[in-house]
Write a structure and sequence with these properties.
The structure is a homodimer. Chain A is built from 18 helices and 15 strands. By secondary structure, chain A is an alpha/beta fold. Chain A has a domain of 245 residues: Rossmann fold (3-Layer(aba) Sandwich). In chain A, the strands form four sheets. Chain A has a seven-stranded mixed beta sheet with strand order 1-4-5-15-10-11-14, sandwiched between helices. In chain A, strands 8-7-6-9 form a four-stranded parallel beta sheet, with helices on both faces. The first copy, chain A, has a two-stranded antiparallel ribbon with strand order 2-3. Chain A is globular and about 60 Å long. The first copy, chain A, starts with 5 loop residues before the first strand and ends in a 5-residue tail after the last helix.
């Protein structure tokens, strides 16, 4: 085994392609996730249904069965400014836990926007720009996605409008400044700029907003203007596809480290960061008969994977999006205001849901207080302040390391540190002040 | 020339030693900076004078004439978690500036505490711990240094007390939370815990605090307790010495890039980040007769290098520190409340001052508004939000790139991006809102 602490790939080893899990499902399982259905006709949606929202290249990726999809050279050029992200051995954490386990983490917080979201933002903006789109709309909850898309748009000269859940914009003014600094137009949702927003405000003039309503607003704007398209930061196949550069890098980095993970862990909201690190391992499991355990970790207060039903549901709150077969708590489920805002989604991605349903991955729910405890233990030993979302993965990694200690087994545990928490210090202050439950 | 965008060194190429500029001054110039003087006797201070404040190893480094000082292996182990920091070619910025210049930046914001300060924090905590010190005190203004020292202390199991300038603690609550999260005791200065603090409060019960008073408080605590020592984040020789790992890395990285810088730029407050990137180049200039221009960039509102006098002055506000020969605006100079709090110091390090006085480096002052303009242009093109301090270096780099455009010359410009601005978003919001002058 190598004793390297931090492993970074040479520029030529940054992935040249996205890896498509559907290829492996088709080939080795002979079965694919059920297709999305039109919210009115309940027929499978076709390219024409999605064309008002997405550029054709992304629609093709959504249904592709190719094993690999080449990363466009201009996108790969931009990846080079921050990738490969480091794979780091958490030696100090191991020592404090007194565990025989080796703990590795992939640090996606090293991206310009501070999370893995930038990986797909660059790709999505590029494909839109290539097809003549001049403006993108999106929604953001915690702000990670809105930040990522606004930076990517600014760098490639496309306009960007971000519908930010009102309560988040007010709780996290720094995120709001950040998005505006990157030149995006930020609109608090619900707003009076769309029918969806006005409807919500008519019901409650002081509405705090929700991710579902913000999605409806952003989608409505795109539907109304052919120059404007919509971008989503998780859930859909093409978004998860772009994130597979994480896992592809990790597989090479773990080879350099000279170890194979027994367990791969990612936090889970819509599914993109979990998919990013886990799908390339699931592909290896399918192709090579390996048995790497992949665990998606979600908040106990929003337990779509562990307590939701596997059924067709809409992705927003009012049915402007297709029906997707997924583990869902119901589209009218309103999760409590936990601090891991990026994990407060009523459903899960169809791909992650399908893999779970087929027992190709595992799911686990953890309590908020225990995630902050894990986050602070990690920060104090490894020096990086994790995003509240990422602390869910840390919690599970520490739990597995403690099991390894009890069992006296030298397990190799790998997790995705999806982002830093520099804009979430209020959440930590609330935790330290005993204000969370 | 290589076309790599981002260059990171292999683990074995992370420096094994700190590089001592005094060796080169002695050997090639035959002259050293004048020694610090005792504030009462005005005799050169000896080890016994400094022993209450610093461990003996750091006192030795302060006066060492060795060319290199080995980095202790446990410190180098911790450097490995985040070093080498990347050297990045600012291709997108070059394109927007339409300049023939090549612009490179060294990104020290990649450290756990988000700035170069962590480099010396780890070293200082280690040497203190080796000599049985159980607690460190320090002061912090903008919070970069307090964050760095608190993390380093937490990781090595030493107690830490941070006197934070009161107005900064209140303007930057996130920095305060961060320092507390890393287990340090944070005391707003002036406080009632020291004579220096009580004296200030007696004069003005609502005193906003200053760096000078906070230093006096931290120093007083160390003087009063043999188990407690004091740590300083800039100005002194040993602090600048530790930062030379930045420049040593850069020289190797620029070799890999296949270019030699014409100009090396760092912002300047106390001198440590400028010294970190520039001293190894100054050493090369002296040793090999090279002519790399090294430019220290300071705020026009606190222009110690460009408008101060080169004379002996005290380092704090009331004379608890030695007199140092430096460019100073006078120890009672109170700089305006600009947002680059880390550059609001009345003096400059004796080493940087000496080099400037000998014309071995250059200095330049820039206006606050122009630094924010540069910072936002950088963020929008390169995707990284710089600390307000670092924007001073960016301003000068952009100005040099624009000169290169006028001259049609393919200059190579290198600057130190000393830290990220994730905890300084209020400053950017104020700038964007037209509230700064």
């Amino acid at each position: 085994m190598s004793d390297l602490t931090k492993i970074i790939l040479a520029e030529q080893d940054i992935p040249h392609q996205y890896q498509n899990i559907n290829f492996y499902l088709q080939k080795f399982l002979g079965e694919l996730p059920p297709p999305p259905l039109h919210p009115v006709t309940r027929e499978p949606v076709g390219p024409a249904d999605l064309a008002p929202l997405f550029p054709m290249e992304l629609i093709k990726q959504e249904v592709s069965l190719e094993q690999y999809i080449p990363i466009p050279e201009p996108v790969r050029e931009m990846y080079k400014t921050y990738r490969s992200t480091p794979l780091i051995r958490a030696r100090n954490l191991e020592k404090v836990l007194d565990t025989p386990a080796k703990i590795y983490y992939k640090y996606e917080g090293a991206s310009p926007s501070g999370s893995h979201k930038f990986n797909t933002a660059l790709a999505q903006v590029y494909y839109n720009q290539q097809e003549g789109v001049t403006e993108l709309t999106t929604e953001t909850g915690a702000g990670q996605w809105g930040s990522a898309l606004s930076i990517a748009c600014q760098m490639m000269g496309i306009k960007c409008t971000v519908y930010m859940v009102k309560v988040s914009a007010e709780q996290k003014p720094y995120r709001k400044y950040l998005i505006e600094m990157f030149g995006a137009k930020l609109i608090k949702s619900p707003s009076d700029t769309t029918n969806a927003g006005r409807t919500a405000l008519a019901l409650d003039a002081n509405h705090l907003g929700s991710l579902g309503i913000a999605i409806s607003e952003a989608v409505e704007v795109a539907f109304g203007n052919p120059q404007v398209k919509y971008a989503l930061g998780s859930v859909l196949n093409h978004v998860l596809l772009h994130q597979t550069i994480i896992g592809q890098e990790v597989i090479k980095q773990m080879e350099i480290a000279g170890v194979t993970p027994d367990i791969v862990i990612g936090c889970h909201g819509g599914g993109s960061n979990f998919a990013g690190i886990a799908f390339p391992y699931v592909a290896e499991n399918l192709e090579k008969g390996k048995k790497v355990r992949c665990i998606a970790v979600e908040p106990a207060s929003c337990p779509s994977l562990t307590e939701g039903k596997y059924e067709y549901d809409i992705g927003d709150s009012i049915g402007m999006t297709p029906l997707m077969k997924m583990y869902t708590l119901g589209h009218d489920f309103v999760p409590p205001g936990i601090h891991a805002g990026g994990l407060r989604y009523h459903g899960a991605s169809p791909l992650v849901s399908f893999l779970l349903n087929k027992n190709l991955i595992e799911a686990r729910a953890v309590e908020q207080l225990s995630t902050f405890e894990a986050g602070i233990q990690f920060a104090q030993t490894e020096g990086i302040i994790p995003a509240p979302e990422s602390t869910h993965a840390i919690r599970a990694a520490i739990d597995e390391a403690l099991v390894a200690r009890e069992e006296g087994r030298e397990k190799v545990i790998l997790f995705n540190l999806s982002g830093h928490g520099h804009f979430d210090m209020q959440a930590y202050a609330d935790y330290m002040g005993g204000k969370l439950k």
